[in-house]
Every structure is written in C-alpha cells, then in structure tokens.
Amino acid sequence: MIRLTRRYRFSSAHRLHAAQLSDSENRDVYGKCNNPFGHGHNYTVEVSVRGPLDEATGLVVDLQALDALVRERVVDAFDHKDLNRQAPEFAATPPTTENLAIVIRDRLLAGWGDTFSAGGTGLERIRIYETKRNIFEVNGKS
Ligand code: NI
Fold it and tell me: What digits encode the pLDDT tens for the residues 58-76?
C-alpha cells in the first residue's frame, strides 16, 4: 500500500455567518470574518490517495484521472467564486474551512466510483491550507 499526496490551488471569497445566531453573536464568534462584504483566501488543497501499486506501471494512481476529478468537482466549482452565493452546499451552512474540507471530501467521493475501480485507489485524506497558520484535515471516509 502506497500513499500519494497531490496539491491543488483555488481562490474563493466567503463570509462566515451562521443563520441561527444573532448579528451580534455572529460578530462575537467570527470577528472580522463576519464582515458583510466578505473576504478571500488562496486555498491550497492536498488530496491524499492510497492503494496498491499497479505492477506493470509501478504507479499508485492515474494522476490524469485524479486531476480531472478534482478539477471538475472542486477547482472549477470553487475557483474565483463566492462560496456563500455560488456553492449550493453553503447556501445555509457557514463556509468555514472545516465545512469546506468536508464538502470537498464528499464531492470527490461522489465521483470516485466513476473514476477509480473498486479495490483500487482510495481517498485517504483532504488537507486544506487556508492561511499560513490555519490547516484543516478530514479523513477520506467519514
Ligand atoms: Ni476567511
């Protein structure tokens, strides 16, 4: 079993705001991230996969297939978008990077079976670098 991590980047705008909380509670919880006009991040996402080596090629994953899956399901969906308004998952859910990690994991898993054969390459972990100090991880399977 070998693990491989590949890195992707996209930039998005968001505003952290929870509909269940009052405006003052939102300001207390999220601070400047609750700014009504939003702000942006240059996210780096690491997608880690695992699987057996293909004996003939010596490869653990078809990188072109992985790139296509991540591009179609994640990068094209989020790059230069307003997550609150343009990603359906965040219409009623705060687009924290915690939630973004879970959404990315679920988007990749939704397309995984069409991309990779059963028993082959599996999704090991999603890691997102939001800022130099904030790094988030979620396991491939919930
Ligand atoms: Ni932010």
Answer: 999 999 999 999 999 999 9
